[in-house]
């Protein structure tokens, strides 16, 4: 069946956000058309098979508190794999420093610096709880670096907090405003929220595949959008030399791609200004699989914290029953940019094995499967898994992702809850669908 050229709603992007929007619109009785540039659904979720193993090259971990994606896992009968985190974490302050064994919840600082880090965390948590748009003028004009400086007394705790933030946010603390950082924390429920409890045996992309299958012919793959025209009564969207029209469009691609789909020129100048300074995150994910976790006999969890290294963190993705053994290495933010110099996937894998040998102090067994994904080089992402407007940009455009002339915005960067996570992508799609249904009902 040929897709309609004039559906009720056009959705640009078949990642979790776009599929969530389309699914909710369809459930609401509206006809939808989803245009996806890739030859697959899922966006920044991408699961591949290596022998008997499914490897998530993109988003992977989920927490029970993320209720939307957890509900989809249950609805689709997807298998949860609980993580085994027993044992000590390895930590080093920087390249060449001594590797220490620490408890998962401890801070690798002196007693005085630990107290400083804890008090700064309490002050930040208090700021998060009280955050409102009234804080925009003040907090969006200073960087996260400045906020950390204001909230800490010691250089050691200041440096550690900055390095940890850069690892999580995928950008430098100089590139993100204090307001954006606090808003990010507020969207996930604060500093102490656990976001890595399990992953899916079938891979995260299995959720997108199921949602895409339910939508059927409404999803058109390999159809990159090249132009958006707001000059007529309806919005015209051109993809692969075909022009579609609708009164409503959901843009569900990362903001760093808005220019490539022809959206940037049709937005108001102040929004263009804010988006042109958008900072994509640096994220390279390397995942390795062994038949068993070789680190557990040494009473290690497999987790590694090394915020000043190229690989700033390692998360153990092993099953609770011990088979297989999985380590996920993240090269993010400013430190991760060093890994961008290695073009080949095998070169990045070799670098990761060298790093693991340094941290664990032993020869690393040859993995039975290994992959490394550079999301910065992926032309339909151009970065991940978090990205942010430049310092001061949100103040210029506080309405940045508000609906505009029938265009609605989705994507984890626009989420009100769990921004930068899969849960955030799904929430943003639900929100945009709800806004459109309300607008259609009122008209």
Concise structural overview:
The protein is of the alpha/beta class and 443 residues long.
* CATH topology descriptor of the largest domain: FAD/NAD(P)-binding domain
Spatial arrangement of strands, main beta sheet: 7-6-16-17-18-15-19
- Gap between N and C termini, in Å? 30 Å
Tell the overall outline.
globular
* Major beta sheet summary: 7 strands, mixed
The CATH architecture of the largest domain is: 3-Layer(bba) Sandwich
Low-confidence stretches: none
What is the radius of gyration computed over CA atoms, rounded to a whole number of angstroms? 22 Å
Mean pLDDT: 92
The proportion of strand residues reads 15-25%
Helix and strand content put the structural class at alpha/beta
Number of domain units: 3
Structure description:
It is a single chain. By secondary structure, the chain is α/β, with parallel strands linked by helices. It has three domains: 9-43 and 204-279 and 389-442, 3-Layer(bba) Sandwich (FAD/NAD(P)-binding domain); 47-86 and 195-202 and 280-374, Polyamine Oxidase, Chain A, domain 2 (Alpha-Beta Complex); 106-188, Guanine Nucleotide Dissociation Inhibitor, domain 1. The chain is 32% helix and 20% strand. It is built from 13 helices and 21 strands. It has helices at residues 16-27, 67-75, 111-130, 136-139, 144-151, 155-169, 178-188, 205-215, 269-276, 333-336, 345-360, 393-396, 422-442, and strands spanning 9-12, 32-35, 47-50, 53-56, 80-82, 88-91, 100-102, 198-200, 219-220, 225-229, 235-239, 242-246, 248-251, 279-280, 283-290, 300-305, 313-316, 325-332, 369-374, 387-388, 407-409. A seven-stranded mixed β-sheet has the order 7-6-16-17-18-15-19. A hairpin with a 2-residue loop joins strand 11 (235-239) and strand 12. Helix 3 packs across helix 7 (178-188). It is globular and about 65 Å long. It starts with 8 loop residues before the first strand and ends with a helix.
């Amino acid at each position: 069946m040929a897709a309609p050229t004039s559906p009720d709603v056009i959705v640009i992007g078949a990642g979790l956000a776009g599929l969530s929007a389309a699914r909710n619109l369809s459930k609401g009785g509206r006809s939808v058309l989803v245009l996806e540039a890739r030859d697959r659904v899922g966006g920044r979720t991408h699961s591949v098979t290596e022998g008997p193993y499914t490897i998530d090259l993109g988003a992977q971990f989920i927490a029970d508190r993320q209720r939307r994606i957890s509900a989809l896992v249950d609805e689709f009968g997807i298998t949860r794999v609980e993580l085994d985190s027993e044992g000590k974490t390895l930590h080093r302050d920087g390249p060449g420093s001594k590797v220490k064994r620490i408890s998962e919840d401890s801070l690798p600082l002196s007693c005085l610096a630990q107290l400083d880090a804890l008090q700064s965390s309490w002050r930040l948590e208090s700021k998060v709880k009280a955050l409102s748009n009234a804080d925009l003028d003040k907090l969006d004009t200073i960087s996260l670096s400045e906020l950390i400086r204001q909230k800490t007394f010691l250089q050691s705790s200041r440096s550690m907090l900055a390095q940890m933030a850069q690892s999580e946010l995928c950008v430098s603390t100089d590139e993100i405003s204090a307001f954006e950082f606090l808003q990010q924390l507020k969207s996930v429920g604060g500093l102490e929220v656990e976001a890595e409890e399990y992953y899916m045996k079938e891979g995260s992309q299995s959720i997108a595949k199921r949602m895409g299958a339910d939508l059927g012919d409404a999803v058109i793959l390999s159809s990159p959008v090249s132009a958006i025209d707001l000059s007529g009564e309806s919005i015209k969207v051109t993809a692969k030399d075909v022009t579609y029209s609708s009164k409503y469009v959901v843009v569900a691609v990362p903001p760093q791609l808005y220019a490539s789909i022809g959206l940037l020129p049709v937005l108001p100048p102040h929004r263009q200004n804010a988006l042109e300074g958008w900072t994509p995150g640096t994220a390279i994910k390397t995942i390795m699989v062994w038949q068993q976790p070789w680190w557990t006999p040494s009473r290690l969890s497999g987790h590694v914290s090394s915020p000043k290294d190229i690989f700033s963190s390692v998360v153990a993705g092993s099953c609770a029953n011990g088979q297989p053994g999985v380590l996920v290495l993240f090269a993010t933010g400013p430190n991760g940019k060093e890994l961008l110099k290695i073009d080949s996937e095998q070169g990045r894998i070799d670098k990761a094995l060298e790093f693991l040998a340094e941290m664990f102090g032993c020869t690393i067994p040859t993995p039975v499967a290994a992959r490394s994904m550079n999301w910065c080089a992926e032309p339909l992402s151009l970065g991940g898994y978090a990205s942010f407007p430049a310092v001061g940009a949100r103040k210029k455009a506080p309405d940045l992702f508000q609906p505009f002339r029938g265009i609605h915005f989705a994507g984890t960067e626009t989420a009100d809850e769990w921004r930068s996570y899969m849960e955030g992508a799904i929430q943003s799609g639900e929100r945009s669908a709800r806004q459109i249904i309300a607008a259609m009902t009122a008209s």
